[in-house]
Amino acid sequence: MNPIAGIGGRVGLKGSDGDDVVRRALALGAVPEANPRTVRALERLGGGAAGLELLVGPGPMGEEAARAAGLAPLVVGGLSGDRTTAEDTRRFAAAMAEGGVDLLLFAGGDGTAADVLAAVGDAVPALGVPAGVKIHSAVFAVSPEAAGALAASLARDVAAGVRPGFREAEVLDLDEDAYRRGQIAPRLVGYLRVPREPRLLQARKAPSPAGEDAATQAIAEDVVERMEPGRAYVLGPGTTLRAVAERLGVPKTLVGVDVVRDRRPLAADVGEDALLSIVEEGPADVVVTPIGGQGFVFGRGNQQIGPGVLRAIGGDHVVVVATPWKLASLAGMPLRVDTGDPKLDALLSGHVLVTTGYGDRAVYRIEA
Predict the structure, then answer these.
(1) C-alpha span between 169 and 135 (Å, rounded)
(2) Helix 239-248 and helix 213-225: axis angle, to 10°?
(3) Closest alpha carbon to 221 in 256, 238, 246, 253
(4) Most C-beta atoms within 10 A of its C-beta, which of 47, 94, 141, 249?
(5) How far, in Å, are 14, 92, 110, 190, 256 from residue 138 at the CA level?
(6) Is the pLDDT of residue 17 over 70?
(7) Strands 74-75 and 104-108
(8) How far apart are the first and last CA of the chain?
(9) ∠ CA 304-305-307 to the nearest 5 degrees?
(10) DSSP string, 42-93
């Protein structure tokens, strides 16, 4: 487990790579999300696999989460210092692979996936528990619970003498400094072997194709026309929401969260606490677009719009916009929410009207 994975998400830092980012996140009041998400995965794993032998990294790199989940793990090695590093991730992953594990379950984001790949290659199957900010790789389960359920299923197969099926999946990573500047250029790092279960595994992020401008402009016209005086509008990340800002004639942080009211800027690139203060002052809507190919509406790259913000706004005031291509890229998969609060995810599940053009709507299913 990468214990600092995702620490910069809620406070608007868009990642957790680098000591300076971690220090800034902690100074802004960020709370690490990786441990509770790992506990949720391991609770599902421990409850679904009898006779399981669980190897974990020491202390905050897996041991603490396993014990919190009620499991009795075997601890591999020790930490070299007070703070964990990417080298620790690579060292423990390599040791587990050498020990002949049936599955390497890791918690983090794309950077952690890249570290695991560097350590084990295709020597051992792996599966990610989503705990980062930007999770573009196709090696992660759709939720912590899904990761635990997949691992438990594999353990049952191994115990029964059934040979599990695996496939290769892409590990992508971004330059976080460029990402913070609004430059989104994922690079293919390589491939990990993952369980062959597409329903519970997320797809890789699909970039929008050229020629989407007309569709995004039509969506922007629709959203702006329906804006009400006095109501705040929280605009999530993405090019579709940038088109809304351009239609209003206001600046937009491409990979951040901004707020407008009465067609004027109210706040730019806000974190969760500032956003909560704004939406508690008066009526507000949140406008978001799903990630292409993955379908996540909340919980991937927009953690600033956290559970407290969504509860204050109310599910009836979530506006989902997507071009027809983006919905088609899901190939029938549902839209998804993974806010970090399972009860809220359940409340957000159901069906939603997705704005797909000027005056055009599509009914689409959302799942936790």
Answers:
(1) 13
(2) 50
(3) 246
(4) 141
(5) 19, 22, 9, 11, 23
(6) no
(7) unpaired
(8) 23
(9) 115
(10) HHHHHTS-TT---EEBSGGGBHHHHHHTT--PEE-S--SSSS--HHHHHHHH
Which residue, among 104, 76, 100, has the nearest Cα to 88 in the 3D structure?
Answer: 76
What sign for the dihedral angle of Cα 24, 28, 29, 33?
Answer: negative
Element (H, E) at 285: strand 284-288
Q: DSSP strand E in 165-279: where?
A: 166-173, 187-195, 232-235, 258-261, 264-267
Strand-pairing partners, residue 70, are none
pTM, entire model: 0.85
Average pLDDT, the chain: 90
Angle at 359 between CA 357 and CA 361, to 5 degrees: 70
CA–CA gap between residue 6 and residue 244 (Å, rounded): 28
CB 257 within 8 A of CB 310: no
Whole-angstrom distance, CA of residue 354 vs CA of residue 364: 7
Structure confidence at residue 176 as a pLDDT band (50, 70, 90) = low
Question: Quick one: pLDDT at residue 11?
Answer: 66
CA 63 from chain centre, in angstroms, equals 23
Q: What is the pLDDT of residues 337-350, one digit of tens each?
A: 999 999 999 999 99
φ and ψ of 106, to 5 deg = -125, 145
* Torsion from C-alpha of 217, 218, 224, 226, nearest 10 degrees: -170
281: left (phi over 0), alpha (psi -120 to 50) or beta: alpha
Residues 154 and 129: beta-carbon distance below 8 Å: no
pLDDT number for residue 195 = 95
Domain boundaries defined on the chain: 19-195, 213-367
Strand-pair partners of 168? 193
Residue 278 near residue 235 (C-beta atoms within 8 A): no
Helix count (H) and strand count (E) of the chain? 13, 15
The length of the chain, given as a count of residues:
368
Distance from C-alpha of 13 to C-alpha of 145, rounded to nearest angstrom:
26
